[in-house]
Every structure is written in structure tokens, then in C-alpha cells.
Amino acid sequence: MSTPVYDRYRAAFVGAIAQALGQQPEEIDPHVKPADPQHGDLSFPTFPLAKALKKAPPAIAADLATKVSVPGLQIASAGPYLNARFLLQPFVGEVIDQARSEGEKYGHSEAGKGKTVVIDYSSPNIAKPIAFHHVRSTMIGNAIANLYRSQGWRVEGINYLGDWGKQFGLVAVGFQEYGDPARRGEVAHLVDVYVKANARAESDPEFDERARAFFRRMEEGDQEALALWEEFRETSLRDFKRVYERLGVRFEHYEGESRYQGKMDAIIDEIAKKPGTKESEGALIVDMPYDENEPPVLLKKNDGTTLYATRDLAAAHDRYERFHFDRALYVVATDQSLHFKQLFRTLKEMGRPWADRLIHVNFGRVGGQSTRKGKLTLLTQVLDEAQAVALEKVKENIAAGRIQTDDAEKLADAIGLGAIVFGDLKNRRVTDYDFDLEAFLSFEGHTGPYLQYAHARACNVLRRGGGAPASYDPSLLTLPEELALVREIARLPVVTREATEQNEPSLLARYLLDVASAFSRWYTLGNQERDKRVLVEGNEPVKHARLALTDAVRITLASGLTLLGVPTPENM
Ligand code: ARG
Residue 454: which of 480, 488, 410, 427 has the closest Cα? Predict the structure, then answer.
């Protein structure tokens, strides 16, 4: 992968400013920002120099404008800013060539080479209803894992299953009362039993005690209890894996809280030495300063069983031993912020030098999951519903002649999945949003299907134009809409880098909407003026140049959507 065209010009601009000022490029670099689009592409504010140079910022900018020159950039001052704009040539050809030569790897880099990131995501609880936050964690985590891979990082994705804890006691004891032995292998049935048992335990202390006792037996290594646990775990896992396959999500590791059974005493002993443990109301807690009203970190309950926090402490230690990560992300709902703050703080108090490499990649809640079929709780239900609605739409569009396909079902699957994934990822992850399947599935507006459609349209133009041309003359691309589109295409590598650094797939999602609308503005020019059509008649050289640009659009959309986990059908 070569240096992105955008970065190359940016570095040249930074270098020329540094030279004119007699400073080091590193001093200038942090100040150069993307310009306000009406002023160009790159901008350098001169305020910080005013004091040292004893000159007004606009005068400094005007002076720099006479001294700074970079081939391929048009440089001018505007008030206190020094701005640079990409010139049509050679920029347009360089960007198109870069996108086309890198193909599906366009937007990737090797910035993370030699570095390792551990990503804990999805992580549903076995034999409990799968909550919508697990769906979000799966989609956000998958996009983030793809982004890190694209930047050359070694990614260790972990599905940290909630496969240990009292809930198994509830299911096991509940099964004797509410279970149908013939349906032991069905997850939906197990979930049903769990829900009933959970409600019963609330009002029936004796029942609750039996569930606890069952979990205690598991922790003590009782073979019979463990065999039943193993069976429930397998049933759930089989079901989860089917869903991940549908989502196109894969994990390097499936492991869960149960991995730490029998390994928690070691970590507790260590905590006892530093920062210390103490008893509180019969439970064992981490002895460290707490804020007023802050609940302490519990390591063992009064009946001696361990907790979520205990297992996460053991898991963090284990992951560092195995992977020596440079970063470890926990893609988990904001609701668990306190848990992670305390987890990281405990590890810091224990003197783990890597404690500040841990990041809680949190996200907000989803509202409005009630749809035509009632409240969607199981992930499969969400997907089924999306695909059913998508299929109706696809059929309508086929009937109206707007879509051509010979496999409506397959297309509906791709659209349904794209709608849900994009509907989630276009929001900044910390914001709450409402699940609105109808809106997510619209072919217009800020949706997955709109982007899939833009991509398919580019593919379609290429097919009708006889394919992507082997050679073309970039100087024939002179329309302002063509330059605007190329400027968007040039940003993909910058945006993927930024989205990775911020663990924020929405940056990429929103950027792709900008690409699609720049494409649409250019593409629709031809509706009014025949000579602006992409497949212009009677001018082969211009047609070839426009097809090459269309090819770069196709590549940009395909690469970006794939990173997000949105399928990219070529025909729709
Ligand atoms: N299973 C947990 C839940 O459903 C999420 C686990 C997140 N990862 C972790 N290391 N705590 O709430």
C-alpha cells in the first residue's frame, strides 16, 4: 500500500510551511486541519505565530502565501488562514489510480504493523435472553475489529461468553419444574425456563437458594452439575454460531467466564497483597479508596462464590499473559461504565503497567424494538423480521422495474442485514437511538440500502459501459462535480485511520454517505445534459475517463461498506 495521495499533499504542505517559517515539520503538523470546503482542502491557522513574529495573523498568512508553494496545490490566504486546494491535475488521476490499484484494500494501511489489539465483543450470556445490547456489541465490535485489521494490527477478537454464574443454577433448577425434556436442545426453550425461574426466585427464597446451591456445586467441581452446564452451554453456542454466520461475524476466540473457574484464588491472593482485600458485610472486597456512595468491588459473596468482577480481573491478567496486547477494548454498553472503571482502577492499584491500555468502548441504548411482530428480543428475530420486510420491498421494486435480480431472497438477506448494521453504525456509538426498521430499510436517506444501491448502480454503469477501462486520460475529468467526488474518494484512507483511532465506526459510515451523495450529484447531471452523462455517446475518451472514476467510486464504497460489515451486492 502506497502513501495515500491526501497524506502526500498534506505532508508537502506542512513541509513547505515549516521551511518558510524556519521551523520543524513536527511543529507545524498538528496545526494543519481539513479546510472549510469553500476555502479548499487544507488549512493552517496563523494565530499561534502572532506573538513570536510580532505581526497580525492576516499579515502572516498573506506573507506565507507568497512564500509557500507546492506543485499540485493552489495556495492562498484568507484572513488569518493559509489555505491549500487540490488542483484538478494531477490530483484527480493520482487518486483514481491509487483506488483502482489497491482495489478492495483501498483505505487499508500498515500503521498498526507489529501491534496487537484484543477486542472483547458480542459476549452474550448463555441460557439467558439475548439482549439488544449484545446485537449492538456484535455489530460495533465487528466493525472495529475489521478497522484494526485494515490498519495492519493483529486482532484477537474474543467472544467472552457469560457462561458462568447463578443463572445456570436458575436454569438447572428451573428445568426440573418448567422444562420439557424433549426440548432440552432448544435455546428458546431454555430462555423460557430461565425467565420463569428468575421470576420464581424473586418471590420464593427456597427456590432461589436451590439455584445458588446448584451454582456452588458447579464452582466446587461437581461432575453432575458440570455435565448439565456443559449441555446447556453447547445448545446456546450452536444457536449463537448460526447467527454469527448470518451476520458474517467471526471471532478468533470463543471463551467465557467459565475459563476462570478454579483460577480466581490466584488473582484474589495477589490483590490481597496489593492493594489489599477486606471483609464487608460477609463479602470479600478490594481494599482501595472509594468515592462516597460508590459500591465496592466485590470479589466473593458471603457464600464464597465468585463474581463478574473477579472473573474480569482474572481474564484481563490472562489476556495480557497470552497476547501482550498494545490495546485491549471492551465493547460493552455504557450501563457497565462503573464496572469497567473499577476493573481498570483495581488493575492499576495492583501495579499492572498495562492497565492504561484498557479501553471501555461504550455505547448507548436502543429504544423502540417493538415491531409488527411484537418486541424483538432474540437476535434471530431481528434478522428474520428485517429480511421479511426487505423481501417485500425487493418484490415491489422488481414489479416496478426498479430492481433486477434473479435471486430475490438472497438480495433481501443482504439488504436486511445492511439496513440493521448501517442503522446502528451511522450513529455515534455513545448516543442512544431508536430502532426503526422501516426507516432503516428505506432506499432513500441515510441508510444502508441507499449505500448498497449507490454501489450497485456504479457496478451497473460499469457493466453497461463495457467494464472498467484499462487506460484513460484523467485530464478529461474537468467538471466541478468530478473534482468534488474525487476529493471525497481521496479521504477514505484518512477516515479509516481516524475511525480506528477513535474506535468510532460512525465516522466511516457518515463518510460513505458523503461519497454516495457526491456520486449522485455527478451522476444525475446527465439527466439534464446529455454530454454530462457518464456513458456519454460519441466520445469514447471521455466515457473511459468517467468509467474509471465510476470504478474508483465502486471500490471506495465496497471497501468502506465491507469494513462496516454491510454486504455489497453488485446487482440490485
Ligand atoms: N456477558 C456480559 C453481559 O451480557 C458482557 C461481557 C462483557 N465483557 C467483559 N469482559 N465483561 O452483560
Answer: 488
